[in-house]
Amino acid sequence: MSHFSIQLTPQLHQYLQSVSVRDQEVLNALQEETAQEEFARMQISPEQGQLMALLIKILGAERTIEIGVFTGYSALCVALALPDHGQIIACDIDERWTNIARRYWKQAGVAHKISLHLAPALQTLDQLLIEGQQDRFDFAFIDADKENYQNYYERCLTLIRPGGLIAADNVLWGGSVVDSTKQDADTRAIRSFNQQLRDDERVDLSMIPIGDGLTLARKR
Ligand code: SAM
Ligand code: CA
């Protein structure tokens, strides 16, 4: 019995990718273009994108929410896995990055599935709640400003149906969560978010050490 997750050396990580990540030209191209950006590290890894696509298919998801689009990679992974009539409400505040996203969504033939809302995500989520969209979504991916994770989570929990899934990214925050010298607002927010979810009886829970840590919470 193993009590630990295996430590991925660069060589082992490369192996994992080589035997599991399926090449998709448009995703590779977006990854390459994003690599030129100063904040390229914000993009999720291909294996995480593929996991999210798998979850979308397992859930039979049709309507999803994405909080934090950047250049559109995670939304593209989800959009490619959704049926043709599927829909993503995508939230971001940055026009330049999301213009790159729009270009690739179009190139991939999934632009019709994605409604981009260029506004603070809390505003967009509150509008969905005002419109009465409670229990109307199957999946939500939280990957924007860390200080709002708890706020995003609470709204998403209302917006998704029982049995639906919330995925929250960066929950290990580069290891800062266990470094007591790190007391910045983002790190504290992630720690508090993780702690609250552990005891949240409204969801089934798993924290997966993929990428920078991904928490999956299934609404009961
Ligand atoms: N999911 C993306 C991917 O895999 O490529 C990465 C998202 S990146 C880590 C975070 C994004 O959140 C940035 O594009 C940023 O503009 C956006 N963001 C930051 N604060 C926001 C807010 N209040 N509302 C909506 N988006 C926000
Ligand atoms: Ca992230």
Question: How do the helices and strands line up, and which of them pair or pack?
Answer:
Blueprint: H1 10-20, H2 25-34, H3 46-59, E1 63-67, H4 73-81, E2 87-92, H5 95-107, E3 114-118, H6 121-130, E4 137-142, H7 149-159, E5 160-169, H8 185-198, E6 203-208, E7 214-219
Parallel strand pairs: 1-2, 1-4, 2-3, 4-5
Antiparallel strand pairs: 5-7, 6-7
What does this structure look like?
This protein is α/β, with parallel strands linked by helices. The protein is built from eight helices and seven strands, in the order H-H-H-E-H-E-H-E-H-E-H-E-H-E-E. It has helices spanning 10-20, 25-34, 46-59, 73-81, 95-107, 121-130, 149-159, 185-198; strands spanning 63-67, 87-92, 114-118, 137-142, 160-169, 203-208, 214-219. Strand 2, helix 5 and strand 3 form a beta-alpha-beta unit. Helix 3 packs parallel to helix 4 (73-81) and helix 6 (121-130) runs parallel beside helix 7. The longest helix is centred in the first third of the chain and has 14 residues, at 46-59. It is globular and about 45 Å long. The model has no long low-confidence stretch (mean pLDDT 97). It binds S-adenosylmethionine and calcium ion (CA). Calcium ion binds at residues 42, 44, 143, 169-170.
